[in-house]
Amino acid sequence: MRNFLPEARSRLGWSQQRLADELGVSRQTVISIEKGRYDPSLPVAFRLAHTFECQIEDLFSPDLEP
Amino acid sequence: MSRSRFGRPRFGGSTATLLSLSALAGIVGGTLLAWIIATLASLPLAWMAIFAASAIPITASLAWVLMVDRDTLTGAPRNPEDSVENVWLHKASSAALLDISGIIGLTILALTILGDRVSLSAETALMAVWFAGLIDVFIRYQMLKRRAL
After folding, report:
1. Which residues of B touch A5 (CB under 8 A)?
2. Which pLDDT tens digit goes with each residue over A9-44?
3. Residue A62 phi, psi (nearest 5)
4. Which residues from A are below 8 Å from B78, CB to CB?
């Protein structure tokens, strides 16, 4: 899964720790999501969309490359 | 809500209350455990004292874990179940269970082949399985963490 979390986060000027605090998860969770090594649960994805005031599809897209 | 390194009790009160109760519960629990084992196994008083001294830090820590309100701990995430550490722990535990199943199977095979040439007490075998499980989970967790970060 590709994600645009770093871009969305930098638009707000937030650190990874700030985003982690907003989501109520650890900083390592944010790092793993941004690096594409952890697909967040649906509740976290919804919280991310709510935090950045956008749709989940604006933050995540399926990696369709073979 | 103010947070601190050692947090506050679930049932209300200060950090000092929590630490005092944990220490008290640890001393009572550790001493009781040492007394029960020493009595059942007819062990000397010195052994009981050494065992109690070793057990008290563990029982006190356990009491703290059971009594602390995790929302009052500094740095504790609100939703630990959504954090990646939770996923790492589940993956590591699941993989370790399979590893341990394999290890037990191979050990049984080896003991069957070796027959009377090797004897293994139940205590030793169970302790080995317990240690192997803990170490396996720890190593796999660290590997998952290193891979993800």
Report:
1. none
2. 999 999 999 999 999 999 999 999 999 999 999 999
3. -65, 140
4. 24-25
Q: What is the ipTM of this complex?
A: 0.84
Say if residue B59's pLDDT is above 90.
Answer: yes
Nearest to A28 among B82, B85, B147 (CB): B85
User: DSSP letters of B106-136?
Assistant: HHHHHHHHHGGG----HHHHHHHHHHHHHHH
Looking at the partner chain, which of B77, B80, B84 has a beta carbon nearest the beta carbon of A32?
Answer: B84
**Of the candidates B27, B6, B29, which has an alpha carbon nearest to the alpha carbon of residue B18?**
B6
Task: Please tell me the distance in Å from B144's CA to the nearest CA on chain A.
Answer: 10
- With tokens 């830090």, the residue in question is B57
Between residues B3 and A59, the one the model is more confident about:
A59
Helix A27-34, helix A5-12: angle, nearest 10: 120
Residue of B nearest to A41 (CA): B82
Amino acid B91: pLDDT = 96
Residue B84 banded pLDDT, cuts 50, 70, 90: very high
β-sheet bridge partners, residue A61: A2
C-beta neighbour count of B4 within 10 angstroms = 12
Q: Counting every residue, how long is chain A? A: 66
Q: At what angle do helices B15-40 and B45-67 cross, to 10 degrees?
A: 140
> Going by C-beta distance under 8 Å and a sequence separation of 6 or more, which residues neighbour residue B37?
B43, B48, B51
**Residues B11, B82, B59, CA angle at the centre, nearest 5°?**
40
